[in-house]
Amino acid sequence: MRRWNGWGDDGVTTVLHDGALEFLHAQVGATTPPQDAALADALARIPASRLPAHPLLDTGAEARLRASFGQSLGDWLRLRFGRIGPVSDAVAWPESSAQVRELLDWARLVGALVIPCGGATSVVGHLRPPEGDARPVLTLMLGRMRRLLALDPLSQLARFEAGVLGPDLEAQLRAQGWMLGHYPQSFEYASLGGWVVTRSSGQQSARYGRIEAMFAGGRLETPTGTLELPTFPASAAGPDLREWVLGSEGRYGVLTEASVRISRLPEREDFVAVFLPDWAAGEAAVRELAQGKLGLSMLRLANATETLTTLRLAGHAGAIGWLERYLSLRGCQPGSKVMLMLGFSGGAAQVGAMKAQARSILRRHRGVSTGTLLGKKWQANRFKGVYLRNALWAQGYAVDTMETAVDWPRVPAMMAAMEQAGRAAFAAVGERCHAYTHLSHVYAQGSSVYTTFVFRIGPDFDAAMARWQALKTAVCEAIVQGGGTITHQHGVGKDHAPYLEAEKGAEGMAALRAMADHFDPDRLLDSGNLFGRRAI
Amino acid sequence: MRRWNGWGDDGVTTVLHDGALEFLHAQVGATTPPQDAALADALARIPASRLPAHPLLDTGAEARLRASFGQSLGDWLRLRFGRIGPVSDAVAWPESSAQVRELLDWARLVGALVIPCGGATSVVGHLRPPEGDARPVLTLMLGRMRRLLALDPLSQLARFEAGVLGPDLEAQLRAQGWMLGHYPQSFEYASLGGWVVTRSSGQQSARYGRIEAMFAGGRLETPTGTLELPTFPASAAGPDLREWVLGSEGRYGVLTEASVRISRLPEREDFVAVFLPDWAAGEAAVRELAQGKLGLSMLRLANATETLTTLRLAGHAGAIGWLERYLSLRGCQPGSKVMLMLGFSGGAAQVGAMKAQARSILRRHRGVSTGTLLGKKWQANRFKGVYLRNALWAQGYAVDTMETAVDWPRVPAMMAAMEQAGRAAFAAVGERCHAYTHLSHVYAQGSSVYTTFVFRIGPDFDAAMARWQALKTAVCEAIVQGGGTITHQHGVGKDHAPYLEAEKGAEGMAALRAMADHFDPDRLLDSGNLFGRRAI
C-alpha cells in the first residue's frame, strides 16, 4: 500500500549501508532517529467535514488526509510530526469528464474550493488546502480516470483519460508495442494530467520531448465551460491554447483527457557513464553534445560533490575503489572528477552513429568511458533513488531538492550560488548542509541546475520547519537573483508562488491572473497555487 | 525598388518560356494579358489623411498606399485593378521601443486604430485597414528597427529589434559565423517580428525549428504596458507567456525585440531529390523518415501533378526528357511519380550518417535518387519561385496557395478535398483551375498540406474578385470540414478569421478575446485580424 507519510509503496524498504552513514555523519554530523507520528493519531485530530453529502463524495478521515498532502518536504514535516493543519473536507473520485463537470457545478453551488489531484506527487504544495480560507475544500482525485481512449498508430497519438499514472500508461501502450517515454523520477505515482499542467520533464526528454512537446490536445473542464483542444501536427492559427493549459496547475480548469505523441519501442537503448577530469571539461562536453543536435536521449552531468556522493552511497566499496583507481590513472582524480550519464535510444544504426559522434566529442574533452555497466545500474534504479528519502529520514536526515534552468553563461555561478545559499542558511543556525548538484536536462541554450540538500531534520517540528523554510527561501532567492526560472521541472504550486513574478513581471502576472478570472470568475479553483493567496 | 503591386524587387523579371505557357494553356485555357492600373492613378485617388500632424508620421500618399497592402491575392487584385479601397491615414517608422510606446499612447489619445507591419509579406490581409470603421488608421512600420542588440555565443542566442528582415538578419549573424536558419518563401522581405506573431515556419524548420522553437524571449509593447519575456532554456513556471505572443498577430501588442536561438553555420549542407513511383510510396517514405527522428533539415514531397508541373515549368526540355526516361526505367512513371526533396545539414559525419539511414528507408519505398543536382537548383531558386506570380500575372494567370496541417490519417483525403474544392469553385463559373499539392513540412504526427491553384484572372476586377473569393471560401471550408487547422504557416489575418472558431471552439475564442480585452481594452489594435470584425 502507498505510504501515508513518505514516498512510495510501504512494502519497499531501502536501507543505508554503514559506509553511506559514515559519509553523511562526516558531512553534516551524527543524528538521533526521529519518532514519527502514528497514522491513527493524525486521523483522530481531523475535524468533521464541512461539506454537505453528495453521492460522489468520500468524507472519511484517511481519504481526506491522504488527499491533502504531496511530497514537498513541508508536507513531510507536517505528516511525520503529526502537525497536519488544514485538510480537505471531502474527496471525490470522478470517473468521467461529465462527473468532473457535475462536481465543479456542485462545488460552486455549495461554495466549496476545489483542488484537483492526479498522483499526489507534487513537491511544491499543490494539494495543501490553504490556511485562512473559510470555504470548505473538495479534492478531485482523478485516479479513476485512467483509460486509454484511442490509439492512432499512423499519427503516433494516444488519447488517455488524464488521471492515468505513469506505469499504467506505459503498460497500456506497451501492450500494443508503443511507449510514451516520459520518465520523471516520480514516474511510479505521477499522472499524465499532472505532468501536463505542471510542464513536467522526464529523464529522456532530450529524445521524447518535455511534456509540452508530447501534449497534442485534450479536454479542459473549466468552471465556465469545456475547452476542447484538437490535435494538429503544427499550426499557425493564432496563439496555441495547449500552451494555456500547460503550466496552468489547475487554476484554469481540470484536465480530464490528453492526447500524447507516442513512439515505437526503440530497437536499441543504452546508457553509458563517462567520467571527465573536472567540471569545466564536463560542462563544455555536454554543451557541445547538446548544441551538436546529435539526438541523444539523455545528458546528465553530476558535479564533483554529487559524483563523490553517488559513489559513496552506492556501496560495493571494493568495486568502487577499483573504478576510482582506474579513473585516476586515466586523468580523472578523486575530488575533481565528474560523472556524465548519456542515453542513446533508436534504431541500431542510429544508436551506432550517435555513439561514434558522441565519442569523438567526449575524447576532445578528456572523457573516460566506463561502458554500460554503471548505465545499467542507473537504469535499474532510476525510480528507486527517491525511496532513499525514506531511508535517510529513518536515520534522522532530511533531503530536499531545488532546481532551475539558466542560459549557459549563468550555469556555473548558479550552481555555486544555490549550494552556497543552502550551506549559509544552515550555518546561520549552527548546522551543516551537504549540497551537491547535477545538470539534469541540457539544452543548446543552457541547462537545468538541480541541487540536492541533505541535512539533519532537527529536534522538533518547529525547528525542522524553520530549517526547511530558511533553506527554501535562501535557495529560491539565489535562483531569482541569478536570473533563473523558479522551476525547470517541479512546478510552482504554493511553495514557489511568491517567486513567479520575478520572471513573469507585473504585466505577465496580470495577464495570467486575467485568464484565471476569465475561466474561473468565482475563484472556485483558487487554493493559492501559481498565484499565491489573494483576498477573496 | 520594391514593386508596389506585386512580389519583390521590380528589377527582377521572370519570364515564362514557351513550353510553360503551352502547358498552362492546356490546363486552364488561353488568356489575354491584363492591363494593370498605374501607380499615379492609384495615388491620385487616395483621400487626405484624417490624422493630426505628429513628428513621427508620414502622410504621403505612396507611403500610405504601400503600407496598406500585403501579398494576399485579394490585395493584388485591388492594386492591379486600381480598386484600392480603404488605405492607412499615416505611416510611422519608429526607431525604438520607446517610440512605439509613444505612438501607441498618441494613437489612443487621437482615437486612431493601429496596424503594426513588419515586412508587408502577409498573404492573409493583415495590413488592410478595415471597411466600415470610422477611426483613422495609423500603420506602424517596424522596418527601421533592425539592429542586432546582443549575441551570446555560449547560449547561441541573438537579440534583434523585431523589424529586421530575413536577409539583413542572416547577414548580421553570418558576419560573426552564425545563422538563424528560418527560410519561409517570403524570406527576402519578411521580418523577424512578423514571423513570431504569425507562427511562421521555414523550409528547414525540421532542423532549426519553427519560429516557436527559435523564439526565446522578447519585448511586447501592449497598449496597457510592456511585457518583457526573459530567456530560459526551459521552464515549468506556469503558462509560457512567449506562447501568448506567438500567433497574436498584433492584437495583444507590438513586438519590438526578439531573442532567437541561433546555430553555427553547418559544416555540410546538401539537398537531394528522390523520386518515388507514386503518392502512396512517397507518403509512406516521408512518414517513416519523420517518425524515425533522423534529424533531416527538410522533407518536401510534391504530388504527381505538382511534380509534373515543376518539371514542365522548369524549362530545359531536353534534359528533363532524359531524366524522365531514366526515372521511367527505374520504375517511376510519368503521371504517377512524385518528387521528394530532402535536406541534410550538420557536421560531416552527422550528414553522412543521416544519408545512410535515409537511403535505407527510401530504398524500401522504391525511391530513386537523382543526387544533389536538382537539389542545388532548388536551393538556388528557393526564394525566386515566388517571382513566378508576377510572370504568370503578366500572362493573365493568377496563382494562390492555401495550406493546412492534419494528422496522418487525414492527409490524402485533405489533399484531394482541397484540390477538388478549388476545381469545383471554378467549374461552377465555367472556368478551369490547375491545382497541385506538396507536403511542405512533415512531422511524426502528420503533415502540412500545401496546395497551389493557377487560374485565369478574369476580365475585370469584379469577376476576378468573385473567382478568388469563391476559391478561398471553398478551400477554407474543405479544410475545416476535413479537420485541418485553417493555417499551418500563413497566419490568420482577416482572410482566415471567419474559420478560426472551427478549431478553437467557442470557449477558446472567448479566452483569446478576453486576453485581447485585457491587453487592449480600447481596441486600439483591433483592425479585424485574428478575430474578425466586432461591433465597436
Automatic annotation (TrEMBL), chains A, B:
Cross-referenced Pfam families: FAD-oxidase_C, FAD_binding_4
**Which keywords, in A-to-Z order, does the entry hold?**
FAD, Flavoprotein
Q: Which domain of life is it from?
A: Bacteria
What InterPro entries does the entry give?
Alkyl-DHAP_Synthase, FAD-bd_oxidored_4_C, FAD-bd_PCMH, FAD-bd_PCMH-like_sf, FAD-bd_PCMH_sub1, FAD-bd_PCMH_sub2, FAD-linked_Oxase-like_C, Oxid_FAD_bind_N
Instruction: Indicate whether Flavoprotein appears among the record's keywords.
Output: yes
**Key word Cell division present:** no
Show where the FAD-binding PCMH-type domain sits.
Answer: 84-265
Q: By its UniProt entry, which PANTHER family does this protein fall under?
A: ALKYLDIHYDROXYACETONEPHOSPHATE SYNTHASE, PEROXISOMAL
Q: Family per UniProt?
A: Belongs to the FAD-binding oxidoreductase/transferase type 4 family.
Give the protein name, as stated in the record.
Answer: FAD-binding oxidoreductase
Specify the species.
Roseateles oligotrophus
